[in-house]
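Sequence, structure tokens passed on for absentees:
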Amino acid sequence: MILPYLVRLLCLCLASFFLVHLALGLAVSLLASPVIRFAETMRPRRAARLLLILRLLPWALSLIAVIGLCAPSYLLLEPSATREEVSLGCILAALLGLASAGHSIVRCARAARRSFGYVRYCQMVGRRQRLDEECAPVWVVEGGAPFLVLAGIVHPRLIISRPVVNALPAGQLAAALRHEHAHQLSRDNFKRLLLLLAPDLFPLVRGFSRLERVWARLTEWAADDYAAAGDSQRSLSLASALVSVARMGACPQTAPLITSLLADNQDLAERVERLLRDTPGESRERPSVPARLAAGTACAAVLLLMAQPMTLASVHRLLEHLTH
């Protein structure tokens, strides 16, 4: 098929994105099991950060490759007045790339709309009040099913139903609120949005589901650690709160951008056992100065390499092969 200059550029960018993302995604799929085993030996917050980076890496590197290499090499080295024939394979790869990206964008937009609508509804039927001195005011919803969630992306809000407020003693309620406050500090709902925005290996095929499930489990453990803060009494209070809310018939929140106190009932026994056994402490590790320096140096080296004329010429030759 013969395509004009700019349409050919779009086709090559989409095809390159799909092929690079597919290659990197397959590599991540192969590395997922050993990385998960290694992450489970780390503190939950650091482990969750590692798995999040691994999950988002194919998407981020594919965007960098297209924006930093493919598009510049084409614009600089491809004659603008030419009309060339594009192979069927390139067009198919471009269509798959467009479908993957489009599906991710639609999925992300729907989740954001549902989250926004849920927050607006709770603010309409609920009342804002302070339940614990350590946490900011929360929205209390009268009646309804028992729940305690963190909803929203940019300005997430703690929302709790009146049955949970009435059922939990002060110590358990404070521990449960601290757990959700930990999700708020970590911006876990925003991270969930990024996971929805990151494309799958193929359209409508969830190729990273195990990685995302383990990440979600580790974020719950990290929030438990923050709530317990190394105190056995707080740890016991949070474990009791989890069991009490589960006995009230609370179901895990299914909305993708809403973090619930009971994110997964299947993980409840393990979380309670961990709280009672280990008295987990708060994890606040930050990257060391050498780690930040190494990351900055690596980024600078990559940018310098991408700007080299030889690099752009090599990429342009690869694009020519892809086109024909």
